[in-house]
Structure formats: structure tokens, C-alpha cells
């Protein structure tokens, strides 16, 4: 979501009390191998799929994200694919 401002992400993370957890060394290695994060990254936070869905939904349409219209759903689905990959790494 390159067109989203970092302040908006921070706002919704705080609004929803989303807590991220630091990835383990094994998770970071797996994320790098799957090209989900840049190879030079030393650490990253992970969140649950449910929280990722809430966050992305609010960023796409903050007023009506729970009832996204069809034209917005197309934009929403590809973003969640990336989060599903991260959600399944243990």
C-alpha cells in the first residue's frame, strides 16, 4: 500500500490498539527468503491476520470498511494475500 501515509497507519494501529510482536530470527529468515521483507532488514513486527484485515480495511475506507463496495473489495483482496503469507510463518 504505497499510497498510504505512515501517519494514517500509526493512527489506525493506535485506534484499534493493535499490538505487534517482534519476529523471531527464524521468522525473519523465512520472510527474507520469501522476499516479503528486504534482505538488509534486521527486525520487524508481526500482527495477526485479523488485525491486518482491520488495519487494511480502515486504510482503504475509514468510514465504511466493514461494508466495502465491490469496487473497493478488488483493491482489498490482493493486499490481504501478503498478510496471509506473513500470518502463516511460524
UniProtKB/TrEMBL annotation:
<dbReference type="InterPro" id="IPR009061">
    <property type="entry name" value="DNA-bd_dom_put_sf"/>
</dbReference>
<dbReference type="Pfam" id="PF02437">
    <property type="entry name" value="Ski_Sno_DHD"/>
</dbReference>
<dbReference type="InterPro" id="IPR003380">
    <property type="entry name" value="SKI/SNO/DAC"/>
</dbReference>
<feature type="domain" description="SKI/SNO/DAC">
    <location>
        <begin position="7"/>
        <end position="60"/>
    </location>
</feature>
<protein>
    <submittedName>
        <fullName>SKI/SNO/DAC domain-containing protein</fullName>
    </submittedName>
</protein>
<dbReference type="InterPro" id="IPR037000">
    <property type="entry name" value="Ski_DNA-bd_sf"/>
</dbReference>
Amino acid at each position: 500500500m504505497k499510497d498510504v501515509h505512515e501517519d494514517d497507519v500509526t493512527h489506525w494501529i493506535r485506534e484499534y490498539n493493535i499490538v505487534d510482536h517482534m519476529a523471531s530470527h527464524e521468522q525473519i529468515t523465512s520472510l527474507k527468503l520469501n522476499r516479503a521483507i528486504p534482505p538488509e532488514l534486521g527486525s520487524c513486527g508481526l500482527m495477526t491476520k485479523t488485525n491486518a484485515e482491520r488495519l487494511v480495511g480502515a486504510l482503504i475506507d475509514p468510514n465504511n470498511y466493514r461494508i466495502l463496495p465491490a469496487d473497493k473489495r478488488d483493491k482489498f483482496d490482493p493486499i490481504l494475500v501478503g498478510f496471509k503469507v506473513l500470518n502463516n510463518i511460524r
